[in-house]
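Quick one:
INPUT:
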């Protein structure tokens, strides 16, 4: 069970890691040019919101689609995630992108497997292009109707839970969930799928957010390692 969860976590991380550069570019833009940034610039800051709302989810979804369905899966995923994004542009659909991307790749992969050996000669380009367009359209509609609203609801619940912890001074307890997630390679999914959308909303309102620092904080993990080092009776574990 642990190995399966770790494989799932690695798969999610593999969707995020190639696109970290886009997140860094977004971070620099926001830190420098938004109204509360170091050198506020209205024109440059206009790129911040579209980058987070559209570019990063499309990149993550396209990466997930390519991992499962190759280049055709990449294109279908990029089309499909637009539906989730447009269902609610007030939040960042990173969680939806992590779902829509592999789903799109899986659908087009299964279609290609069914069509293998049955495609009429001379119609390959026509069928390939139309299949990508049709699958992209159907999945975009599905994303708009179901996946986007579902992820919006999940994020709303998680945001409410985080707010309760913050208001009661219990934010360090979040590490109880983050540290095991690191072991299972789910930390990137939690960080960019949950904390980043919450943090972005807070940063737009307040100019800062502690949420960006939760998953990146090495303190709790160091504490666990020190506890094992000095308190564990099993020498092999120590």
């Amino acid at each position: 069970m642990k190995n399966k969860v770790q494989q799932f976590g690695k798969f999610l991380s593999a969707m995020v890691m190639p696109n970290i550069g886009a997140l860094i570019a977004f971070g620099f833009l926001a830190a420098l040019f938004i109204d509360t940034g170091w050198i506020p610039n209205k024109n440059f800051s206009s790129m911040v919101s579209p980058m987070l709302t559209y570019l990063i989810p499309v990149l993550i979804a396209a990466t997930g689609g390519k991992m499962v369905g190759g280049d055709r899966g990449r294109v279908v995923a990029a089309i499909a995630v637009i539906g989730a994004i447009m269902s609610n542009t007030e939040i960042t659909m990173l969680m939806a992108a992590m779902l829509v991307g592999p789903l799109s790749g899986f659908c087009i992969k299964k279609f290609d497997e069914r069509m293998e050996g049955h495609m009429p000669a001379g119609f390959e380009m026509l069928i390939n292009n139309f299949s990508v367009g049709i699958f992209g359209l159907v999945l975009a509609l599905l994303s708009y109707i179901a996946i986007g609203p579902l992820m919006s609801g999940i994020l709303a619940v998680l945001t409410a839970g985080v707010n309760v912890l913050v208001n009661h001074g219990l934010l360090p307890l979040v590490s109880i969930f983050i540290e095991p997630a690191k072991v299972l390679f789910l930390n990137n999914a939690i960080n960019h799928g949950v904390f980043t959308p919450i943090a972005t909303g807070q940063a737009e309102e307040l100019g800062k957010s502690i949420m960006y620092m939760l998953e990146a904080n090495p303190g709790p993990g160091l504490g666990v390692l020190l506890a094992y080092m000095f308190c564990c009776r099993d020498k092999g574990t120590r």
